[in-house]
Q: What sequence folds into this?
C-alpha cells in the first residue's frame, strides 16, 4: 500500500455520521460472523495492521476487535460494494477453536433463526462470555 | 408461521428511521451477494412470500428484488444477530446463470477489492446492465 495515498479512503461513501457498515466473513467456512461499523480511521488502521479495527457506536471510540477478548481477526481481503458504502472483510477469527466472534460466546452473531414465527437460538454457546471478558 | 403473532417483528431493534440492515448470502456458494435495508413491512413480506423484499432508501418505497430485473431471491433462512439489529438472509439468486445480484451485472455487489492501496474491480460483468433493466 502506498502510505501517502489515501484516495481509496476518500472513495468510500461515508454516511452522515462518518461511518460505513462492515460485514466480517470467515475465510474457509464462508460464515458471516458479525456486522459492525468503521469510521475512516478504523478502516485505515484495519488496512495498515491487517487486523479488524471497528468503531464502537456505543462506546464512541475505535475498537480493535479482540483487545479485551483475545478474539482478534486477521484480515485477508477488504472489499467495497457497488455503491461504495458497504465493506466486506474476509477474516480469520482467532482466540478459540471452533472460532468465536460473538460476545455471547457463539461462533457467529447471527445465531437467531426465524422458525414458525419465532426467533430460535440455532447455534450453541461455545464458551461462557464471563470467561471471555475479564 | 402464525399470521396473527408479530412478536418476532417487534423483537427487531429498528433504527431511528425504522430500518434494519440486511445481508444476503447465497446458499451453496456462501457468497455475500448484497447488502440492503428493510423496514417492518419489507421484513414481514419477505417472510410471508419467501422472496426478498427490501426497502429502497433512494426511492423511499418497498422494493421486491427482481421486480424490474427478473433477478428474484428465494429466501431459505432469516437470521437475526445478537443485538437484534442486523438481518442475514440465506438466498437463491434467480434470473441468470451464474447468478447476478448486482445492478452492475456482476455476481456480487462486493466486486471492488483493495489491492496496493487502490480499489480494483475483481470480478467480471456477466451481463450488460442495459439489457437487465428495460
A:
Amino acid at each position: 500500500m502506498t502510505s501517502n495515498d489515501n484516495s481509496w479512503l476518500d472513495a468510500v461513501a461515508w454516511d452522515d455520521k462518518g461511518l460505513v457498515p462492515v460485514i466480517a466473513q470467515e475465510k474457509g467456512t464462508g460464515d458471516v460472523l458479525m456486522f459492525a461499523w468503521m469510521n475512516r480511521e478504523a478502516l485505515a488502521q484495519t488496512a495498515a495492521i491487517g487486523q479488524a479495527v471497528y468503531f464502537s457506536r456505543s462506546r464512541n471510540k475505535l475498537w480493535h476487535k479482540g483487545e479485551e477478548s483475545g478474539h482478534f481477526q486477521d484480515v485477508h481481503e477488504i472489499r467495497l460494494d457497488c455503491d461504495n458504502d458497504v465493506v466486506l472483510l474476509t477474516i480469520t477469527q482467532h482466540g478459540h477453536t471452533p472460532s468465536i466472534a460473538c460476545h455471547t460466546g457463539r461462533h457467529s452473531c447471527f445465531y437467531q433463526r426465524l422458525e414458525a414465527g419465532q426467533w430460535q437460538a440455532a447455534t450453541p454457546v461455545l464458551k461462557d462470555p464471563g470467561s471471555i471478558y475479564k
In short: The radius of gyration of chain B is 16 Å. Helices of chain B lie at 7-10, 40-49, 129-132.
